[in-house]
Task: inverse folding
């Protein structure tokens, strides 16, 4: 049992945090307004190796696991989650490619994105599997992307990749505007590739959920940190507002919830890295993040009072964006369904079910 | 980062599980029905001794350094033990809560005299730590029990309450102040042996739950103990050392209490899941979702306890994490017992089901060793510098 982050990973996290502070945080309103990040930023992100963290070694990627990705996501999202999504072109759509087929599928997705106009692959998680031989018609009300290169549809056992016939309609969007926002329509589109494997589908879902959950952790952390600092500086009735017990306890609850959610995410990611399915743990980690986001986001605004409501401070953006994030990867209900089915099937949720071994 | 549980710990947990199922839970249910602590001569305690319980980890001349990972190991065992019966766990013989203080601060002579009999005890033996007073619970710095030197003795005067196992303990480590006006700076711990004149008025309280162990009040009236009964002797550092010794005991203990609460919450959740599966309720989404929520909350509290204990093992500060572990563990265990009551419905209302006992038992976890509110005050001091 060891809660230390290994030196190499620690260095990666620190470098990412520095990149986030210098390149993302200071421009978050600019990115939001422009609804995109600049090419220079994308180049810097790629040069740092952040674009290929989980890419297989054979494609010259770092082939790191879920835990590494979660740690990096948290750092970037704490600075500007919209930009973090924009920069990660494959996003969680990487996971079906990785889990079902591996390097070849990943390379294909990368090729699709690297045209003259940078584009992204969008993942949509569905309740039922598609028949890959039938034309696909569907409408997705919102995806946090503007230029969509491909759509990855992930069902309970199957993934289908659609490249042609994707129509997008720009949207104003509630949050994550830096990543772009579109409604997406397919009319009798055909899957160019499809794979079937229940275990791969389950792991792809789990990794996608942790991708979202770790982004949420970043935003929740930013809210907790900013509102705590503000509460220590702002004075009413002759003392910092943080010293009124009503707010002091709220700040404590916010930080406890953040820590609880973070540990659930890290444990689930670690399990995935050990080769476990971890579908219950990943679903639960996402649910915890979404439930915490329900009140931490608004609490951040509340601590700042009227100032919190204004766009001069980041907490209103955090409040919008963390809830919008929670809609991704199937959102709360799909995660509840996964976790519920596992429990119904008799999964022992808390019996000491951690992997066993000779570790210390 | 590594969440792997060592084989040694797993084996130890498995042993606790067997012992818990065979002995602890039946003893806890018996005490609950009896409505009073298990008597000193109860066969359970003798079985417990034969089973290897009730012993000190101290050995003469051995290094005080603990083995690597000891706190995390202890956490898993605490969770598993409390799963079967937290009351019986506390009732178990042994040097108990003060052992850590004696190991950390005691002189070699004190360790020999007070822990020695617990190496291979000839009979079930107990010891306890007495901090709480009728007018000083969470505010441990405000205790009024006094100690003053009179010739070759310390003279103690005061009253203690809710002390686990006090009437059956061979000795009590009593927290007292040399000068109440100096607050925590003047606090010291004193060994008071059973039978010492002036130690008396033992009153075993009637409780809502956790009935297997005694919570006892007692008084110290001109109670004289030899000078050498001062923990650590007179030569050890002055200042806040006495108070800090007591607080160190609590900082290491809080995540363990949190883990016990997690174990109790797990027991309640298991009852709820078992009932829901037997009756088919598990197929109802609203039941399923509530069970998922509870298992998630317990899992996160467990991870926080683990992290707090891991920091103890790393000899790193854990004030924030220890309070978080204690606060969350207690909170989720009560929620789990409440959920269990609701899922079992009228079955829980009969008052004969384990879930009803757990509902009563878990409440104590948010009170003992610093209430949930005190834990939040401690965390607020760390997070926003909340003034004392």
Result:
């Amino acid at each position: 049992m060891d809660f230390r982050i290994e030196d190499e990973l620690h260095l990666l996290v620190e470098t990412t945090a520095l990149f986030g502070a210098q390149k993302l945080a200071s421009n978050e309103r600019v990115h939001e307004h422009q609804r995109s990040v600049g090419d220079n930023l994308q180049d810097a992100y790629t040069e740092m190796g952040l674009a290929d963290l989980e890419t297989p070694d054979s494609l010259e990627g770092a082939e790191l696991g879920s835990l590494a990705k979660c740690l990096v996501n948290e750092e970037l999202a704490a600075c500007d989650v919209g930009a973090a999504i924009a920069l990660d072109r494959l996003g969680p759509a990487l996971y079906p490619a990785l889990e079902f087929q591996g390097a070849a599928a990943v390379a294909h997705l990368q090729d699709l994105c690297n045209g003259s106009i940078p584009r992204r692959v969008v993942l949509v998680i569905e309740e039922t599997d598609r028949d890959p031989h039938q034309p696909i018609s569907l409408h997705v009300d919102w995806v946090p992307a503007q230029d969509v290169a491909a759509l990855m549809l992930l069902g309970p056992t199957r993934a289908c990749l659609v490249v042609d016939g994707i129509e997008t309609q720009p949207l104003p969007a509630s949050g994550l505007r830096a990543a772009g926002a579109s409604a997406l329509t397919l009319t009798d589109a055909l899957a160019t590739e499809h794979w079937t494997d229940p275990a791969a589908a389950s792991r792809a879902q789990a990794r996608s959920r942790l991708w979202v959950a770790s982004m949420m952790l970043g935003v929740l952390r930013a809210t907790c940190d900013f509102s705590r600092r503000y509460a220590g500086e702002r004075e009413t009735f002759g003392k910092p507002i943080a010293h009124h017990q009503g707010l002091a306890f709220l700040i404590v609850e916010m930080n406890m919830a953040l820590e609880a959610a973070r540990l659930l995410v890290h444990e689930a990611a670690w399990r995935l890295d050990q080769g476990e399915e971890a579908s219950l743990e990943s679903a639960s980690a996402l649910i915890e993040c979404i439930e915490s986001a329900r009140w931490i986001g608004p609490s951040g605004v509340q601590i700042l009072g009227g100032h919190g409501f204004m766009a001069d401070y980041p907490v209103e953006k955090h409040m919008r964006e963390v809830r919008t994030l929670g809609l991704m990867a199937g959102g709360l209900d799909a995660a509840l369904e996964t976790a519920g089915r596992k429990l119904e099937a008799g999964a022992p949720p808390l019996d000491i079910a951690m992997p066993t071994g000779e570790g210390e | 980062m590594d969440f792997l549980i060592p084989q040694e710990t797993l084996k130890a947990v498995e042993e606790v599980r067997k012992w818990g199922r065979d002995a602890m839970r039946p003893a806890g249910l018996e005490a609950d029905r009896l409505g009073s602590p298990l008597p000193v001569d109860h066969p359970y305690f003798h079985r417990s001794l034969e089973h290897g319980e009730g012993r000190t980890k101290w050995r003469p001349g051995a290094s005080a350094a603990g083995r690597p990972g000891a706190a995390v190991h202890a956490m898993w065992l605490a969770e598993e033990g409390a799963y079967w019966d937290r009351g019986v766990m506390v009732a178990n013989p042994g040097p108990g809560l003060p052992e850590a203080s004696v190991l950390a601060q005691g002189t070699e002579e004190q360790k020999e005299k007070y822990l020695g009999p617990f190496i291979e005890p000839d009979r079930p033996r107990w010891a306890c730590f007495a901090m709480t007073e009728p007018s000083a619970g969470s505010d441990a710095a405000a205790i009024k029990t006094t100690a003053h030197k009179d010739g070759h003795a310390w003279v103690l005067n005061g009253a203690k309450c809710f002390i686990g196992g006090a009437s059956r303990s061979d000795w009590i480590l009593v927290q007292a102040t040399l000068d109440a006006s100096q607050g925590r700076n003047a606090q010291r711990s004193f060994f008071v042996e059973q039978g010492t004149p002036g130690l008396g008025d033992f009153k075993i309280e009637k409780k809502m739950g956790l009935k297997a162990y005694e919570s006892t009040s007692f008084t110290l009236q001109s109670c004289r103990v030899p000078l050498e009964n001062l923990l650590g002797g007179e030569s050890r550092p002055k200042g806040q050392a006495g108070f800090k010794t007591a607080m160190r005991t609590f900082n290491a203990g809080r995540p363990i209490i949190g883990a016990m609460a997690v174990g109790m919450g797990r027991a309640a959740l298991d009852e709820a899941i078992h009932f829901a599966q037997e009756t088919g309720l598990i197929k109802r989404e609203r039941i399923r979702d509530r069970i998922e929520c509870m298992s998630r909350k317990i899992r996160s509290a467990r991870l926080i306890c683990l992290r707090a204990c891991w920091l103890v093992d790393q000899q790193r500060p854990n004030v924030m994490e220890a309070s978080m572990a204690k606060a969350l563990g207690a909170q989720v265990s009560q929620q789990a017992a409440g959920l269990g009551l609701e899922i079992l419905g009228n079955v829980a209302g009969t008052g004969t089901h384990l879930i009803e006992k757990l509902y009563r038992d878990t409440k104590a976890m948010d009170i003992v060793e610093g209430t949930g509110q005190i834990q939040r005050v401690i965390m607020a001091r760390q997070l926003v510098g909340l003034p004392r």
